[in-house]
Amino acid sequence: xxxxPRFAELAYSETPLGIVSLRCRTILSLNNREVYEIxxxxxxxxxxxFTAVEVALADLGLAKTREQFPDADSLDxxxxxxxxxxxxxxxLSDDRLGSLRVVDCLExxxxxxxxxxxxxxxxxxxxxRCQFVHGDFFQLALADPADTGFDPEDSxxxxxxxxxxxDHSPDKLLHEAHGDFYSSEGLKKLTAxxxxxxxxxxxxxxxxxxxxxxxxxxxxxxCESHVVSxxxxxxxxxxxxxxxxxxxx
Length: 249
Known about the structure:
Helices cover about 25% and strands about 35% of the residues.
């Protein structure tokens, strides 16, 4: 039997944000664990080695959504940022989820899922509730609902929950153009895409930030921050990220 390859670049493509690449490597020190990674230039966007917070984003966001809409038989949800698909997969595991729109501006990442180059691709593409939307989440979030929205077929469609996992944090952006979204004005525009009482949840790699939490509170009457700890096997210690959960009027 041939040993597993230690590194393979599976795909790469030029995008408006830079070169995005997909690679797979075997970590010998972790019992030959196979890890998939997406990079934008030299910057890591997603690794299958660290998925706890991506799953927690969906679990915390949808738990609050179920509380807000106890009588809804079918929940319509948006995920901003596809990555390797772990937030989307966790959302689809909710038996009350009726539709999922996964918005990503990196078309190659969507194609890698459709082509089965990433482990969760076949599962996500086979689920009829899941639709990939190629677009800029931030532009769609800030746009007038009469002009465009997260559903390509219905710009005015509102959602029960919007889950965001794109930038590293409100202070560490993948692109400076995203900055307007994290302001009080930007977050207020997002609420127009939600049903009354709808939920916005967001991942951040930083500890809870007072400035961003204050902006959230101007747009949402109810806000929480959850610190999610997870084990980092490469460093032999625990790490932590933040999930914000906010409820619209």
